[in-house]
Amino acid sequence: MKIAIVGAGFTGLSAAYVLSRRKHQITIFEKEATVGGLASGFKHKEWQWTIEKHYHHWFTNDSFAINLIKELKLSQKLFFPPSVTSIFYGNKIYPFNSPNDVITFSPLSVKDRLRTGAMLLYLKLLPPSLALNMENETASNWLKKHFGEKAFQILWQPLLIGKFGKFADQVNMAWFWARIKKRTPKLGYLEGGYHQLLERMLEEIKAHGGEIKFNTPYTSDLDRSFDKIIFTAPSFAFIKTYPSLPDPYKRRIASIPHLHALNLLLITEKKLLKKDYWLNINDRKFPFIALVTHTNLVDKKYYAGKNLTWVGNYLPPGHPFLKMSKEELFAIYQPFLQKINSNFNDKLQTINCELFLGPFAQPVFFTGYAKLKPDFRTPLRKVILANIDMVYPWDRGTNYAIELGFKAAGEAEGFPSAD
Questions:
Q1: Beta pairing partners, 4
Q2: pLDDT of 70-86, one tens digit each?
């Protein structure tokens, strides 16, 4: 078959990888100048490795990504170094990486710490078949009820509000369960950056006769040239590409709100965070939700000895930060960065910063989301949809983007996947 794939992120490339190896004629359409989508990378000329425009890592249970890396003979480049996840609360950093960290988390009473530890273990052990029943209850209600009011206010409410804003009280508990279930103590990365895997996939696709058209948005008039189309771009773009879709279908997929990822990458001589890789900001007076220090996971020698730290945010369309330059945004963030590290002003000399916007990066998973979740099959006979709205209850991530691409390939060949 002649198959068009719209988008060269991990979902599109994974579908193309499978289908090209099965002798289908594949053409990938990518509106940007490079592969990767939200996982695309860049590098300064003095760096040895690329880094992603938006922070990424793998968990040790990310089987689809890990198996693909092995299949493409890149497994020797995959490594899982020690990493520290922490919480910033009450102007202090608390490690939150292990059961012992939970038990010694002093902002909570001993009783609340024990209750929190027990509930985290319960969520970790709860199987998906039971956890999916949680989708009809909001995370806010469930967490408040089972963790207790104090733990909810300190641990979970600031993160829900920070990530989802006005939608915080509408996000369902199945999504939250998946965040706890998925996390592993060790986090992984690929030598050279994710770009190594993306480029290797593209090489394999081309070796099997596939082609890619960069800087080329897909338009519906191209449908007649293909037997199947796999559309991996956001639902918003799908509706825009196919305005003649039936109104009920358009209303259904358009009713899923999305937040934009806005990440400011700080490039500094000295460390902003001493040892923490991931620091959740549990103080909603702060204008960002997390600091992610890449060079506390990966040696800074690959980046000319500089320290790389993302200042992470998820923002609704129309938020004023989305229109700001990196200098304007840094000026807003700087006083808050100084609260985390008082030496930031005079000793951490910022060499540079980069600003990256990832539109439609985070779907909002309401209660009853399963009724809204798009299907591979669409009202258009030849067109298959496979995008980030469909990885639920799991959160966005390259592992599930790869799985989605594999399933979309099966749909294109007439082998419906079992969701």
A1: 27, 229
A2: 999 998 899 999 999 99
